[in-house]
Write a structure and sequence with these properties.
heterodimer, A: mainly alpha, 2 domains, 14 helices, disordered N terminus, disordered C terminus, B: mainly alpha, two-stranded antiparallel ribbon, 17 helices, flat
C-alpha cells in the first residue's frame, strides 16, 4: 500500500526508467534536427548584409546587428498606403475568418457526429473526398464564381470560402465523435436547447480540437496575399506588401530575412499559447463518461 | 409475417413516392440538425463542390482559358496515358514519393506525438512547438539548399569530404541520381504537420480512467498500453491523420521548386502535381490540367479506401 502511494506521484506507474531516458534522448536529438529552420531564421535576421552574402555561407551569425530591422522600418515608412493599413487588413481577415470558421465548421461537425439524419454520411464523405482534389485546377472556376457573385475586390472572396474549409469540419467531426452521448443526453434532459448543448457541453469538451484548428486556419489566412481576388491597394494584405518590398531585389536580402522572422513570429506565438492551453485543460479535466 | 417484413425493410416494399414522403418526413423531424449544417453546407457547395465538378467537366474539353472550352471527350485522358512520356515519369515519381514519405511521415508523426506525450506538461508544449517548426515557419525549408549545396562548401559535401567518404562534391540537387533522395529527406522533415497536431490533441483527450483500469488489468509496459489502450481510443484521429498523409504525400510539389528547380533535371523529381502546374499555370491548357487532377484524385481515393480499412483493424 505504501509503495503505490509513493508511485502515485508519477503519472504512469508501468514506465521503466530506462525507457523514459531513451525517450528523452531521442526527442532531444530529433528536436535539434527539427528546430533547425527556427534557429537559421533567427540567426539570419540578425546578420549584417556582408554576412548574408558571405561565401562560403555560415549557419550562425557572428556580429549580430539590428540593421535589417531598421532598413525594413525605413522602407515601410516610404510606402504609398500607410503601412499600418496593410497590418490592419491582415489582422481583420485573420480574426474574422478564424473565429467564423471554427464556429461554422464545429456546428456542422457536431450534427454530423452526434445527430442521425438522412444524408449525413454522404455529406461527410464528400467533404473528406474534396480534400483530395488539387486546388490548382479549381482556381479558374472559383474565380468565375466570385466574379458572378460580384465579390472580386472584396474581403468576402477571401473570408467566406475559408469558413467552409474541408479540413476543419473533418478534424472537428473526428473529435466530436468521441464525446459520450450520455453527457449530451443529460443536458437535454435538463431542458437545454440544442444550441446550448453544442456551445456549453460539446465545445468545451473538444477544446484541444478547436485550439488545434485555430492554428491551421490562422496560418492560412495570416499568409494570404489576396491572390487573384484583391486589386485595390487599400485592401491589400501584409504578406502582399512585404512581397513588394522584397521585389526590390538582391540588395533587400537582409530585409527579407527580417521580414521572414517577423511574419513567422506571430503564428508561432499564437501556437505556443494554444499548445500550453491544450495541455492545461486536459490535465484538469479529461473526457469522462 | 408479411407486415413485419415490410416494417424491417421499408425500402423494398414501398413505392417510390411513398419512400420520398418518408424521407421528407424524416428530414422535417431533423430540422434542427439541418439548421446546424446549413451555413457550412451552403458555402461548401458554392465554393468547393461547384468548382470541383466544373474542373472534372473541363477535363473532357480543350480549354486554353482565352477561348470557350471545346468538348473533346476522353482525348485528354488518352493523350495523358498513351502519348505523354513525361506524365508517366511523373506518375512513377509520385508513387515513389508517396510510398516512402506517406507511411514514414505518418508513423513518425504518431510516434513523436506519443513520445512527447510522455513528458511533463510544461516541456511538452515546448517540444510540440519545436517539432512543428518546419511546418509553421513558412519557407524555412530553403535552409536545405545551403545544406545540400552542390559545391564543396555545402554543409553535407564539406562534411563528407572531411570524413574522407567522398573526394569531390556531389551535385545533390541537380544530379538525377541523388535528387529524389534529397527531396525525400526534406519532405520527411516537413511531415510533422496537421496529422501530428491532431495526434497531440487526440492523446490529450484520452480518459485517464482507461489507463488506471489498464494498470489494474496488468498492462505491463508503454508498448502494451499503446496498442491496447491508446491507439484504439484515438481511432478518429488516426483516420484523420491518414487522410492528411495521403493528400500531402501525393501532392508534393511546392517544396521541390526551390530545392531541385522546376522542371527538375531530366524530370527526375517531376511529380503529377508538377505536371499539372506546368500545364495549368504555364501552358494554360486547363482541360489537360483538369484531366491530370482528376486522375490524381482517383489515385488518392483508391489509396484512401485501402488505408481506412487497415486502420479500422487497430487494437483488435
Amino acid at each position: 500500500m505504501a509503495k503505490t502511494k509513493v508511485k502515485a506521484r508519477r503519472r504512469k506507474p508501468n514506465r521503466s526508467l530506462g525507457g523514459d531516458i531513451t525517450n528523452i534522448v531521442i526527442l532531444v536529438l530529433f528536436g535539434l534536427f527539427f528546430a533547425m529552420p527556427l534557429i537559421y531564421a533567427i540567426s539570419n535576421a540578425f546578420k549584417p548584409l556582408d554576412e548574408i552574402f558571405l561565401f562560403p555561407p555560415r549557419f550562425f551569425v557572428r556580429n549580430p546587428s539590428l540593421e535589417n530591422f531598421q532598413d525594413l522600418f525605413i522602407l515601410m515608412q516610404q510606402s504609398w498606403v500607410p503601412f499600418s493599413r496593410y497590418i490592419l487588413n491582415t489582422v481583420f481577415i485573420t480574426a474574422v475568418g478564424t473565429v467564423g470558421h471554427v464556429i461554422v465548421a464545429s456546428m456542422a461537425a457536431y450534427v454530423l457526429a452526434k445527430h442521425k439524419f438522412p444524408g449525413r454520411v454522404l455529406f461527410f464523405n464528400i467533404v473528406v473526398l474534396s480534400l483530395m482534389f488539387s486546388y490548382h485546377v479549381t482556381a479558374i472556376p472559383s474565380y468565375l464564381t466570385m466574379s458572378f457573385l460580384g465579390w472580386i475586390d472584396t474581403y468576402y472572396a477571401i473570408i467566406v470560402p475559408q469558413l467552409a474549409y474541408s479540413l476543419g469540419l473533418f478534424l472537428m467531426k473526428q473529435f466530436m465523435e468521441q464525446i459520450p452521448d450520455s453527457l449530451l443526453e443529460a443536458a437535454r434532459i435538463d431542458g437545454a436547447s440544442e444550441f446550448r448543448v453544442f456551445w456549453q457541453i460539446a465545445m468545451p469538451t473538444v477544446k484541444p480540437a478547436w485550439l488545434t484548428l485555430v492554428i491551421f486556419v490562422f496560418q492560412n489566412l495570416w499568409n494570404t496575399t489576396g491572390g487573384t481576388y484583391i486589386y485595390r491597394e487599400e485592401l491589400k494584405t501584409l504578406p502582399y506588401a512585404l512581397q513588394q518590398i522584397l521585389a526590390g531585389g538582391i540588395a533587400r536580402a537582409g530585409v527579407a530575412a527580417a521580414v521572414a522572422l517577423l511574419m513567422m513570429s506571430v503564428p508561432i506565438t499564437l501556437f505556443i499559447i494554444t499548445q500550453s492551453n491544450i495541455i492545461q485543460t486536459m490535465t484538469t479535466s479529461g473526457i469522462k463518461e | 409475417m408479411r407486415k413485419m417484413a415490410s416494417n424491417i425493410l421499408p425500402n423494398t416494399k414501398m413505392s417510390f413516392s411513398a419512400r420520398m414522403n418518408n424521407t421528407w418526413a424524416e428530414m422535417k423531424k431533423n430540422k434542427v440538425s439541418y439548421m446546424f449544417l446549413a451555413p457550412y453546407a451552403i458555402i461548401f457547395t458554392i465554393f468547393t463542390i461547384v468548382p470541383v465538378l466544373t474542373s472534372i467537366g473541363l477535363s473532357f474539353t480543350y480549354y486554353n482559358i482565352l477561348e470557350p472550352p471545346k468538348w473533346i471527350g476522353f482525348q485528354n485522358y488518352i493523350n495523358l496515358l498513351l502519348d505523354d512520356e513525361v506524365f508517366l515519369i511523373a506518375l512513377e515519381n509520385t508513387f515513389v514519393f508517396a510510398a516512402i514519405t506517406g507511411p514514414i511521415g505518418y508513423f513518425a508523426a504518431l510516434f513523436f506525438a506519443w513520445m512527447i506525450n510522455e513528458l511533463p506538461p510544461k516541456i511538452r508544449a515546448i517540444m510540440v512547438v519545436i517539432f512543428y517548426a518546419p511546418t509553421i515557419s513558412g519557407q524555412a525549408y530553403i535552409v536545405w539548399n545551403t545544406l545540400f549545396s552542390g559545391d564543396a562548401y555545402g554543409y553535407i559535401n564539406g562534411m563528407l569530404i572531411q570524413l574522407g567518404i567522398i573526394y569531390e562534391p556531389i551535385q545533390w540537387l541537380t544530379d538525377p541520381a541523388y535528387m529524389k533522395t534529397a527531396a525525400i529527406i526534406v519532405v520527411l522533415w516537413m511531415s510533422l504537420g496537421t496529422g501530428f497536431l491532431a495526434f497531440v490533441a487526440g492523446l490529450q483527450g484520452i480518459d485517464n480512467t482507461l489507463y488506471e483500469a489498464g494498470y489494474v488489468d496488468g498492462v505491463q509496459n508503454r508498448w502494451q498500453e499503446l496498442w491496447y489502450i491508446t491507439l484504439p481510443s484515438m481511432k478518429p484521429q488516426l483516420l484523420f491523420g491518414a487522410v492528411m498523409s495521403i493528400t500531402s504525400s501525393f501532392a508534393i510539389h511546392e517544396v521541390l521548386v526551390p530545392l531541385v528547380g522546376f522542371p527538375s533535371t531530366d524530370y527526375a523529381a517531376h511529380t503529377i502535381v508538377s505536371h499539372l502546374v506546368d500545364y495549368g499555370n504555364i501552358r494554360f491548357e486547363m482541360g489537360y490540367a483538369s484531366a491530370i487532377a482528376t486522375l490524381l484524385f482517383i489515385a488518392m481515393v483508391g489509396t484512401n479506401q485501402i488505408v481506412q480499412r487497415l486502420i479500422r483493424k487497430v487494437g483488435s
